[in-house]
Amino acid sequence: MARDLVLDQLTKKFDSITAVSNMSLEVREGEFVCFLGPSGCGKTTTLRMIAGFDTPTSGSINYDGEVINDVIPQKRNFGIVFQSYALFPHMTVEENVSFGLKMHKVPKRKITERVNELLALVSLGDQKHKYPPELSGGQQQRVALVRSLATYPQILLLDEPLSALDAKIRVNLRAEIKKVQTELGITMIYVTHDQEEALSISDRVIVMNHGYIEQVDKPIEIYKNPNTRFVADFVGTSNFFEGQIEGNRVTDIKTGLRFVIAKDVLAAVEQSQKKISISIRPEKIIFHRHSGQVRGDLEKTNLKEGTIEVITFLGVIVRSLVSVADQHIIVDITEKDFEKNLFRMGDRVQLYFPPEDFLAFGL
Ligand SMILES: Nc1ncnc2c1ncn2[C@@H]1O[C@H](COP(=O)(O)OP(=O)(O)OP(=O)(O)O)[C@@H](O)[C@H]1O
Ligand SMILES: [Mg+2]
Q1: Of ligand 1's atoms, which has the minimum distance to the CA of residue 191?
Q2: What residue spans define the domains of the chain?
Q3: In what order do the strands lie in the sheet with 327-334?
Q4: What's the pTM?
Q5: In this structure, what are the phi and psi dihedrals at residue 359, rounded to the nearest 5 degrees?
Q6: From 3.40.47.10, 3.40.50.300, 3.40.50.2300, 3.40.220.10, which CATH number describes the 5-230 domain?
Q7: How many angstroms separate the alpha carbon of residue 260 from the centre of ligand 1?
């Protein structure tokens, strides 16, 4: 039977604060999951309960078919990697990685074998005689990663392991963590508040907010089909409007902008809810020069005129802030299309909001 981790109605209170609220989740053996959410939403607290450092106020943690609430951390055999590398500064890389194995009284020859194998996995074989202060941040975190793997943990728990590193190293190292996870087939639970990081490495993402789970899904589903307004807002970028539904139309209360929304999209919200929130991703909005290039079969209501206020080059895409009825709409188009059309700040443009590309949420 697979050694799954099952959280059942897990709750943690600190005096008056409920840090984690009725959290239920199954993490399958060999799976890579991310806890994603804003600061204070309970990610670390959940991880600490899984590790055994914090005792749940109520609910249970089940591993391999047994309740482990009262099992001490050492007996759980879950490895942990924190944001700070926490290596022993007076020990070499090799001594750091072999530390846990020595504590477990593993024979010397076996230790050497294991340490060499792990250091090779993260391309640090030639650094093993160095001391941590002689290594870069990225190298230190690689050592911390394999040190936590040395004793064959059942699950590896990682709490923002890359947040102290600069952007480029972070991207490289997360690919490396994913590679190690795939090669070893180990279950990993990874905490981050960086949505790009979560989407890029996980099999499934657990989006948390105020101690609750908002959504558990594959990265692509989290992005394309967010369950709640919170998820749509936290993951990626969205333009939001709020208003009354009248038939297939929604009129934004603040700006008076009116949109026709596809039936399928509106089916996602309860019919009884008159006031809803709708959103559209910046890359779904179609950007036209204001010169009648617009096709005749488009839904005319969803064509809006605006002025380009700000242009930001983000590499492959160009992001524009377009003011429409005193609201800033974020629109992304590829750099190639942008250059082709020679858009400039101050240009009058026409935006098209495809009815089927909206998302709708109850309020
Ligand atoms: N030991 C503690 N005593 C009292 N309150 C705590 C304790 N640990 C955490 N909290 C509170 O519980 C809530 C969740 O904290 P937690 O550290 O789990 O958040 P987090 O999602 O990891 O945030 P961050 O992204 O900032 O690390 C917060 O409101 C925090 O202040
Ligand atoms: Mg935290």
Answers
A1: 22
A2: 5-230, 237-362
A3: 286-289, 348-352, 303-313, 317-324, 327-334
A4: 0.91
A5: -120, 150
A6: 3.40.50.300
A7: 42
